[in-house]
Amino acid sequence: MSGSQCFENPPKLSPGSGCGAGTVQQLGGLNTYVTGSGPPDSKSAILLISDVFGYEAPLFRKLADKVAGAGFLVVAPDFFYGDPIVDLNNPQFDREAWRKIHNTDKGYVDAKSVIAALKSKGVSAIGAAGFCWGGVVAAKLASSHDIQAAVVLHPGAITVDDINGKFETSQAYPM
After folding, report:
1. Which alpha helices (DSSP H) does 51-168 contain, by range?
2. Domain Dienelactone hydrolase spans what residues (predicted)?
3. Which domain holds residue 29?
4. Alpha carbon distance 147, 107 (integer Å)
């Protein structure tokens, strides 16, 4: 389970700033930061799944660019549909409502759409890397046959049962 330290140093977000070397494209019905292309004959991609601060976080995009520089096509979808957490200290922010709208089950379904879109473009090997909230989605994907590898880069709300593929439905991300 994640602790309060997960939210102690949120990124400085500047939505629409266009930071990063990639471009935002539609993929699987989602706005997606796309960077790199891999070697000309590569059929490999990495799906980066953000934490609750979303796909526009500058350091998240910088990481996507760095992974792309290692020879991969990297896609980082906006799983929050333009509604990432921007300020946890805002008294108007309703954490419970946000969690209901942006649960990891929905993220999993959306990720499968992105994966299908990648496969339709000829990508045959897909890895997923998830941070906090995204780690739960990556673990869910790892229990499917949709990806070949997964990594969780931050200890989000993942249990041993999650890793073993025994997910509870409608798991809400604790904050």
Report:
1. 58-69, 95-101, 104-120, 133-142, 160-163
2. 32-156
3. 4-11+19-163
4. 15
Residue 159 lies in a domain: yes
Task: Spell out the residues 6+ positions from residue 76 whose beta carbon is closer than 8 angstroms to its own.
Answer: 32, 33, 34, 35, 47, 48, 49, 50, 55, 60, 61, 64
Supply 21's token pair: 């070397």
Nearest-angstrom CA–CA distance, 83 and 134: 15
Tell me what the pLDDT averaged over the chain comes to: 85
pLDDT digits (tens, 9 = 90+) for 120-142: 999 999 999 999 899 999 999 99
> CA dihedral defined by 110, 115, 121, 124, rounded to 10 degrees?
180
Six-digit token pair at 36? 């790199």
Against a cut of 0.70, is the pTM above it? Answer: yes
With respect to residue 170, please indicate whether it lies within any of the assigned structural domains.
Answer: no
Residues β-bridged to residue 150: 128
Cβ atoms of 140 and 162 closer than 8 Å: yes
pLDDT at 67: 94
Structural domain count, the chain: 1
Specify if 85 maps to a domain. yes
Q: Are 85 and 69 in contact (CB under 8 A)?
A: no
